From TrEMBL:
Keywords: Membrane, Transmembrane, Transmembrane helix. It comes from Vreelandella arcis. The chain crosses the membrane at residues 6-25. The lineage of its organism: Bacteria, Pseudomonadati, Pseudomonadota, Gammaproteobacteria, Oceanospirillales. InterPro entries: PP0621-like. This is MYND finger.
Length: 94
């Protein structure tokens, strides 16, 4: 009878350890995946689109202004100028 309880205990401990190891393995795998994704982002970069000329370029080479992306300061300035002269649909009626 005692032996059965010991066996059950050992089984429970092994089961628990297995779950723990599996959890650690999953965590490790997830960390590796995020690491790889970060590496990829450093290589290619996340692509954004210039609001003015609609050309695609890596995020780290783009300029950001008010949540809009631009390929150069010239295009940013032109876009802002254009907006001042002809305000676009969403901010016309106030
Ligand atoms: Zn542009």
């Amino acid at each position: 009878m005692n032996l059965l309880i010991i066996r059950l205990l050992i089984f429970a401990v092994l089961f628990y350890a297995g779950l723990k190891l599996f959890g650690m393995y999953r965590q490790w795998q997830r960390d590796r995946l995020t690491q790889e994704r970060e590496d990829q982002q450093q290589d290619g970069g996340h692509m954004v689109r210039c609001r003015w000329c609609e050309v695609h370029l890596p995020e780290n080479e783009a300029l950001r202004n008010d949540g809009q992306w631009f390929c150069s300061s010239a295009h940013r300035d032109r876009f802002l100028q254009e907006q001042k002269q002809h305000p676009r649909d969403n901010d016309t009626d106030q």
